[in-house]
Amino acid sequence: MSRRLTQEELRGLFLFEALDDEQLDWLAARGTAVRYESGRPVYQEGEPATCFVVLLSGTVSLSRNVHGDDIELSRTDQVGVYGGATQAYLGDRVPQVYNNTMHAITDSEMYELPAVELGAAMREWFPMAMHLLEGLFFGMRNVNNAAAERERLLALGALSAGLTHELNNPAAAAVRATAVLRDRVAGMRHKLAMIADGRLDGQQLHSLVELQERAVKLASTAPKRSALDASDAEDAVGDWLDERGVNGAWDLAPTLVAGGVDVPWLEDVKVCVGKLDLEPAVRWLVYTIETELLMGEIDDAVTRISGLVNAAKQYSQLDRGPFQVADVHELLDATLIMLNAKISKQGVKVVTRYDRDLPPIPAYAAELNQVWTNLIDNAVAAMHGDGTLTITTSRDGDCLAVEFADTGTGIPAEVRPRIFEPFFTTKPVGEGTGLGLDISYRIVVKKHHGDIRVTSSPGDTRFLVLLPLTEPAPTA
């Protein structure tokens, strides 16, 4: 049941108190007072915003739907409060939908005005205000987009610098090892010529080649020794060579020990070639061992480069669709690799506690990587070069939970309610745009229908990201 309001009733609402009689008559003719029983929704989140509403009596609440749960934002019985199509003045230039749900908590009465009527009235009655409001709305949207783009470029620049640094180390190691390898191969050819100058018969050469093959296998499977064990082994090998007149024994010993050679193996060499040819044979075998170790270094360096490239590919998701079924652990590991240079430079220790039994989830993988980047970057910054970042995955009901816990200084209680606001940052000027957590919130909550929560005290700040385990593809 609905009714028309009088001029006096409309003027009694603070929103309309400054309007003239003609304007009030216009509102009275086009709007109606509608009663809602307790528990009934006045309008629903996500539906087309067709009405602007003003509370006349009763109590109403505003709520938002977060991952299937209605979260109450506010509750009021103040006459004159309004909601619904509050951006009707923008017309068709912006899709008009209700961004929350209003419920009647008690039997309530609302003044309802069609959105198209409100938009037309505002543009006619307040043209200057419309220019200001439109400028504010579209200006802020453009600023948000530009700042978000800058945030992404800054993140990309930091990641590129980190990746370049990470790639430089194994690449430089491969170049250095290749240069040394070339020199060692030349030396091995020279020593082989000295050994094969007629002093060794065919059987001895055959045995020496067998010893070389054994040396290669030893070098490829040599166990890592502690510093003390390596020192003792080098002393024993160095003493043995020195006692048998091998020049530079103490220079040869570290390479032989690194390749897994011990005194009994050297005794086999002596038996094979005799005392006179022991030194050239040992040096030839040292070149063999060093060559194998250098090839191992090159293999490790190239594998590391390949791993970094794969991590960058996983991080960027360049060859994959935007929405896919993804393993969160792979995304987290790729992000940690991309940020490794920054994390290591800051002296932060990273601990991962993954529940590997968790299934892959439907997700925008590249955008989740952006969330991980923002949360890890903030955690590292909060620890000021000393602390531990613990990343834990677990199951939380119908959600996969990812927790980022750091031992930093914490987020002050008075700041905590604002951390997801656009442009709000606690970082010094020039070190942040204040969009990282806002972007993360929108990716998790808006695009994935999940949730992101924070608890904080000095030495223990935790960001918890909840993502649905199963869900139809969310809308962009």
TrEMBL record:
SUPFAM superfamilies, A to Z: ATPase domain of HSP90 chaperone/DNA topoisomerase II/histidine kinase, cAMP-binding domain-like
Pfam families membership: cNMP_binding (PF00027), HATPase_c (PF02518)
Gene Ontology molecular function, alphabetical: ATP binding
Keywords: ATP-binding, Kinase, Nucleotide-binding, Transferase, Two-component regulatory system
Catalytic activity: ATP + protein L-histidine = ADP + protein N-phospho-L-histidine
Domain of life: Bacteria
E.C. numbers: 2.7.13.3
InterPro entries to which the protein is assigned, alphabetical: cNMP-bd_dom (IPR000595), cNMP-bd_dom_sf (IPR018490), HATPase_C_sf (IPR036890), HATPase_dom (IPR003594), His_kinase_dom (IPR005467), RmlC-like_jellyroll (IPR014710), Sig_transdc_His_kin-like_C (IPR004358)
Residue ranges of every copy of the Cyclic nucleotide-binding domain listed in the record: 15-83
EC class name: transferase
Ranges for domain Histidine kinase: 298-471
Protein name: histidine kinase
Organism: Dactylosporangium maewongense
